[in-house]
Design goal:
5 helices, 14% strand, Alpha-Beta Plaits, three-stranded antiparallel beta sheet, alpha+beta, 5 strands
Length: 112
């Protein structure tokens, strides 16, 4: 099992979750298609896309879930029905990345 970032992260990207992650399994997926798909604006710093969790790297500790100020993170087995597609989005966007792409988009702090 892993945790999943869902729709409320789009236009937010607070990164409080990243600060508490012991394994650095968060990735900054800078794809405007998610903003467009859900008709949401960019984050306050003008970034598009959202943060996502790599399911093979997540250790299911749950530290990120309580830190998220917009309640965008859920355990994959507990994602609300309206956000179920985000389980697939998190998998597709992170599992297909090369090591080089993973390194380039990995979030390790509140900084970009």
């Amino acid at each position: 099992m892993a945790y999943v970032v869902t729709k409320p992260c789009i236009g937010t990207k607070d990164r409080s979750c990243v600060e508490v992650c012991p394994v650095d399994c968060f990735y900054n997926i800078k794809k405007k298609k998610y903003n467009d798909l859900f008709s949401l604006g960019l984050s306050p710093d003008g970034e598009e896309g959202m943060l996502m969790i790599h399911p093979d790297e997540c250790i299911n500790c749950g530290a990120c879930e309580t830190e998220c100020p917009v309640e965008a993170i859920y355990e994959d087995s507990a994602v609300p029905e309206q956000y179920k597609a985000f389980v697939k989005y998190n998998e597709e966007e992170t599992l297909g990345l090369s090591d080089e792409d993973l390194d380039a988009s990995r979030c390790t702090s509140k900084k970009k």
